[in-house]
């Protein structure tokens, strides 16, 4: 494998990782913002109060997006294997 092919493979792997992680990260960020707002309004500053809703929201997002995520992973893996012998 030559250098441009390796760079292209690394770039596509990083983009796939970003796209796959994005739904959970966005849901975690939104849940963190909502919990932070509720903590500021109620003045309850406990770490576990912020942790549990974020974990539950991210787990729900993972379950909801799992078919799409698996499709993306299979497409990326197929692309890698198809182009492995070409370079």
TrEMBL record:
Any single Pfam family the record assigns to this protein: Bac_export_3
Q: Which UniProt keywords apply?
A: Cell membrane, Cell projection, Cilium, Flagellum, Membrane, Transmembrane, Transmembrane helix
The entry's cellular-component GO terms read: plasma membrane
| Transmembrane stretches, start-end | 12-38, 50-70
- What Gene Ontology biological process does one annotation of this record name? protein secretion
Q: Quick one: where is this thing mainly located?
A: membrane
Its localization reads:
Cell membrane
> What membrane topology does the UniProt entry give?
Multi-pass membrane protein
Q: Which protein family is it in? A: Belongs to the FliQ/MopD/SpaQ family.
User: What is the protein name stated in its UniProt record?
Assistant: Flagellar biosynthetic protein FliQ
Q: Which organism does this record belong to?
A: Rubripirellula reticaptiva
